[in-house]
Amino acid sequence: MGAKKRGTKASDVARDDSEKAEKLLNSSDEQVAAAEAEAAPAELESVSEGRFEQMVSETLDTVGGKMLFKMRIDGEPGGEHVAAAAVGEGDDQHFLILSMPLEGGELQVEEAAESANPVAKIAASYAGIAEKLDDAA
Predict the structure, then answer these.
(1) Where is the composition biased (Basic and acidic residues) (predicted)?
(2) Is the pLDDT of residue 4 over 80?
(3) For a tag on the chain, would you pick the N or C end, based on fewer CB atoms within 10 A?
(4) Where are the chain's structural domains?
(5) Per-residue DSSP letter, 95
(6) Which tens digits make up the pLDDT trace of 95-132?
């Protein structure tokens, strides 16, 4: 994940945030599997926006992450729910993209910097705008 190290304290924070992001990337499958087992019968069912948001929030809660935004993207074939999230703060902040097909399936978690999803390109910009709006309020 390559967070920049700036002194002992910053490197500890960077390592902690990297570990949190790694934990999210590694643990989300287990959490999603448990949530899907509760919510879905043997065959896939479409996933509502509310259910997708709940799954993302539960996953992010495990690592102290924050959902920045979510959207539904319709397309051929099918479509997907997509959310952008932030883990960490300042220079050590990581942006994640969480997605799931509209028809259901696994929650995919990937770093925005490595994602081919077009939504990944706006995650950091959105976080910056939201921060400025919070500061102005």
Answers:
(1) 12-23
(2) no
(3) C
(4) 7-136
(5) E
(6) 999 999 999 888 999 999 999 998 998 987 887 787 77
